[in-house]
């Protein structure tokens, strides 16, 4: 079977088979894009970028935004390139911010000062507010994975999620939380 026909059948089967096709789509798309992304990103960034690409491409497919399924790979490659560039730009910006913050940082630990305690409390309150505004499922996944350090398999089993669902829900929750944090930072 030709690659174009394979992708066309996969796209057309998404509505009929749901999670099975989405998992196969994630696997096939990841295999197609991983080598390209690996040239410019580290391993963790490649995985994050792949999840973002899958979320964007699946969203476009669900909205009917891709009229010609044979162009799926080209569309996904374009999205992947843009996501990689965005990731690199964020990394550069974060490094600059981190380097600037280290230069102005005092040598005394602020954790024990009244200001440090207040900053920690404010940060805790902001994180609580951000988590509270997420969907219950998203909040539960983030808390269990990052706070309680439960394994992906344990969370998936107990919440009855497929591997793809877990990855998508987790990446969406992180994206929503990050957007809320950025919005909170600009409002402060």
Topology, element by element:
Blueprint: H1 3-17, H2 19-38, H3 43-62, H4 72-104, H5 114-132, H6 136-147, H7 152-159, H8 163-187
Structure write-up:
There is one protein chain. The chain folds into 2 domains: 3-87, Rna Polymerase Sigma Factor, Chain: A, CATH 1.10.1740; 110-187, Arc Repressor Mutant, subunit A. The protein is 81% helix and 0% strand. It is built from 8 helices and no strands. It is globular, with a radius of gyration of 20 Å. The termini are far apart.
Concise account of the structure shown:
The chain is an all-alpha fold. The protein is 81% helix and 0% strand.
Structural descriptors:
Rna Polymerase Sigma Factor, Chain: A; single chain
Low-confidence stretches: none
What CATH calls the topology of the largest domain is Rna Polymerase Sigma Factor, Chain: A
Cα separation of the termini: 56 Å
What is the CATH domain class of the largest domain? Answer: Mainly Alpha
What is the alpha-carbon Rg in Å? Answer: 20 Å
The average pLDDT is 80
For the record, the CATH architecture of the largest domain stands as Orthogonal Bundle
Strand proportion: under 5%
The arrangement of helices and strands along the chain is: HHHHHHHH
Please estimate the helix content: over 70%
Quickly count the helices.
8
- How many E-type strands? 0
Global outline? globular
Whole-number tally of structural domains = 2
SSE-based structural type:
mainly alpha
The profile of the biggest β sheet is: none
